[in-house]
Amino acid sequence: MESYIIEENTAKSSRLPARLDLAQSGTGLILGLFMWVHMLLVGSIILGKDAFDFVAKTMELAFLSDTGHGYPIAVFFAVSGVFTLFIIHALLGMRKFPISWRQHRIIRDQMQMMKHPDTNLWYIQVVTGFVMFFAGSVHLYTMLVNPGGIDPFLSADRVVSGNYWFLYLVLLISVELHASIGLYRLCMKWGWFTGKDARHSRKKLKAVKNRLMIFFLGIGFLALLMFIVIGWGHRQNAGERYQGTAYQQSHAATAEAPAASAVDEVEKTADETGAASHEADMQETAAPPSDQAPALDDAPADAPVSADEAEPVHDTAPEHNTAPATGAAPEHDTEAVQDEGTSDAPGPAADSHTEADAQDQGSDAHEPTHSAVETQ
Ligand code: HEM
């Protein structure tokens, strides 16, 4: 098979390997930069559950919804896109893998012979890439089928109660090594950021690579630790969602506004109906039995209202003052008086009481109520 293919192609030189290399570099660049962003987003758990919840909801485009809930479908598409890139990058990467024992021996011997750091870095790329075939796929598939399952509790439960901590530990070390070495090799391969002194800029780029690797590994370990602490504390309620407030307040306020105005509406109509029913009551009460109806309409505003007619007036406070000093109306007053005056005086007796008091104390104390009565 091998001899047939080589014989077949020896005559023609092809640009395909170079193009495949370019595609591998392109997918590697996007995935590498994605991983830096991904680790910063996942690292928000270090700032607390609400921070992680806010990031998770933002990734679900919750700011576009009226109720503050997110759209997991957005995460589903993001994961599908990254998973596709991941598979293409892995496929292109396999071309460089030592696929037989003989090829593996050759590379190992070369490393020992050359003791060249960048050659060793290439071997680390192969090993971490191989590990990510499996660990990365498990993680990506989990995210693909649980796009709505990302919040401080669900993620922490996955890490502890779902035992994903081991997968993430292996994946974290592999991906941070692979991503930072990969981006460094891209700069070397395509000549990015290389100044006049290639040796000096290579040294500088390597230092940047190491610092970024330690920085993202640090964030990753801290984040994993936070997930373990939260997940351990939450293991009794594993699977329960985090009741976060991200995007809820803002949406609650806007939600309340129409609700508030709805309440106003209801109240207004209630008032209107109240007024209408009061109106109707008034008409009912005021309208003398069918033969006396016309009197009310043209009754002058200050027309005296009879005692038994006074009862319904009670509802609307302002009418109170005009109530005649009969048994019914004064009750209310007496209560007020009682409060103000002596506590032990029983109800109706207060009538006589108040008048006497008024005379004793001079008219100012009880002026308002009684004066209405006298006028009549
Ligand atoms: C769009 C695609 C991706 C999404 C939505 C995603 C989402 C997440 C989320 C939510 C976590 C927190 C733990 C959890 O909820 O289970 C996490 C952790 C992690 N992801 Fe991803 N991920 C994606 C792609 C990748 C890829 C391609 C890799 C590497 C090959 C990767 C490596 C990791 C690692 C190592 C952790 C553990 C981080 C830590 O706590 O230290 N992720 N990812």
Short overview:
With 376 residues, the protein is mostly helical.
Total strands = 0
Strand content: under 5%
Bound molecules: protoporphyrin IX containing FE
N-to-C order of helices and strands: HHHHHHHHHHHHHHH
Give the full name of the CATH homologous superfamily of the domain at 16-252: Fumarate reductase/succinate dehydrogenase, transmembrane subunit
CATH architecture level-2 label of the domain at 16-252: Up-down Bundle
End-to-end distance: 123 Å
Instruction: Output the CATH class name of the domain at 16-252.
Output: Mainly Alpha
Kindly identify the CATH topology of the domain at 16-252. Answer: 3 helical TM bundles of succinate and fumarate reductases
Poorly predicted spans: 293-355, 357-376
Question: Can you summarize the main beta sheet?
Answer: none
Structural class: mainly alpha
Return the average pLDDT rounded to an integer. Answer: 77
Radius of gyration: 42 Å
Shape by Cα distribution: elongated
Count the DSSP helices: 15
Estimate percent helicity: over 70%
